């Protein structure tokens, strides 16, 4: 009997030690699990640092040995490589590196696709793409081209700290990085945040909701993202107190209580990383108007979005363009938001000669110059 008790006691002690060891490992490796792309080898040579906000470098200047498969170097190669319909939207576009600084002085390099056949002063739409945790802006050329085609837009992929440099990523740091990317687009195109579409995928969806809650947006498009990242992690490690120890929480449910503008959500019914129930929960609890749910049969987390899905997104964005503006800026502090921006009034002409008045709550002081549909 004593031998049995000793064996049982040793098993219990070993189990406790193993549990504590795994828990400490999870705490230590949280950043690697949340931001795996930041710990991969660099995908390209870093651009030369220049102390100015609006810097650019053509994609032809990239190190060809480090370019991703499908990365194209000339306009002729781009037209041959793309599978998109050649109706003019992809003719003559340029994809380049663009540099911008965060509020804490970090220099980040995003990727910008500018369409050349649209208005020289301003494209129909401007889209900020926020990628997932295992991707990088340098790898998103194909996604930029597809979104430029379907949304008739200039498209920029923002980058996060740590993904192409030696800085440590964090939730607060990524929020600042996304704000800097939006500020860059606002300054480049003379827009307010309310005129920029945010497209966030997976972890980028958590960044997109935080950015929209703090700055506003013309619309937020979320692709296979979660309600709360901490809840996704707690599901994967149910025997550990994840909700108590996890620092990078990404509470998109709370963020979409502050952002009240248009929302489009895409999710696949075979998503093995972020279950579709997580996406539905975020959609149902979002205080956004209007909001649209697009469920894609057979779509997993890593699969490319079908053209049919992007066509549906295009249709929804066109409906948003034709609709009267909604409250797409952060709410007033008395409604639960902080740092409410100054309210400004702009008049927009309609095609029939009438006009409607838009009250923008934005940190930018530059009014829009282009006619809105």
Essential attributes:
alpha/beta; Rossmann fold; nine-stranded mixed sheet; two-stranded antiparallel sheet; globular
What do these coordinates show?
The chain has 373 residues and is of the alpha/beta class. The chain has a single domain (30-338), classed as Alpha/Beta hydrolase fold, catalytic domain (Rossmann fold), CATH 3.40.50.1820. Helix content is 34%, strand content 18%. The chain contains eleven helices and eleven strands. The chain has helices at residues 2-28, 30-34, 75-81, 141-151, 171-189, 203-215, 229-236, 242-245, 252-258, 276-285, 307-322; strands at residues 55-58, 94-101, 107-114, 125-130, 153-158, 197-201, 219-223, 263-268, 291-296, 343-349, 355-361. The strands form two sheets. It has a nine-stranded mixed beta sheet with strand order 1-2-3-5-4-6-7-8-9, with helices on both faces. Strands 10-11 form a two-stranded antiparallel sheet. Helix 6 links the parallel strand 6 (197-201) and strand 7 (219-223). Helix 5 crosses helix 6 (203-215) and helix 6 runs parallel beside helix 9 (252-258). The chain is globular, with a radius of gyration of 22 Å. The protein starts with a helix and ends in a 12-residue tail after the last strand. Mean pLDDT is 80; it is low at 48-54, 58-89 and 333-373.
In short:
The protein has eleven helices and eleven strands. It is α/β, with parallel strands linked by helices and 373 residues long.
